[in-house]
């Protein structure tokens, strides 16, 4: 009732849904130590062109990934290769592609997989197939 002793509809604001979602994201981040699995990583692929001549190919790969709804980032700043790779590794990206003259000529990629801790060369088609497989894997 209000001050005039009339019944009023009470209103209650509640944030439980957002609060539980925030807790879930916090727990997930802690569980993964920031190294999110490929299928939920905010940025799944870092693309590191060695020089300016390789940026166009990097953008082409980025476009193909975007068509698959996979977020990627091209590191095109004028910095050393090791610094670009270090920046991508600090972001704990699941995959890093390094592109140079050989990769552009052969339409391939040099893939550094965070979990496998190895680097391997794949054709662009093989890489796209691998990415599609990774997107279908859901595991913790």
What do you see in this structure?
- This protein has one domain (38-136): Rossmann fold.
- The protein starts with 15 loop residues before the first helix and ends with a helix.
- The chain has a 5-stranded mixed β-sheet with strand order 2-1-3-4-5, sandwiched between helices.
- Helix 2 (55-67) links the parallel strand 1 and strand 2.
- The chain has helices at 16-32, 55-67, 81-90, 101-106, 124-136; strands at 45-49, 72-74, 95-99, 108-113, 118-123.
- The protein is an alpha/beta fold and 140 residues long.
Taking pLDDT < 50 over at least 5 consecutive residues as the criterion, the unreliable ranges are none
- Assembly state: single chain
Classification by helices and strands: alpha/beta
The secondary-structure element order is HEHEHEHEEH
Please name the CATH architecture. 3-Layer(aba) Sandwich
Average pLDDT works out at 88
Question: What name goes with the CATH superfamily?
Answer: Anticodon-binding domain
General form: elongated
Q: What is the total tally of β strands?
A: 5
Count of separate DSSP helical elements: 5
CATH fold assignment:
Rossmann fold
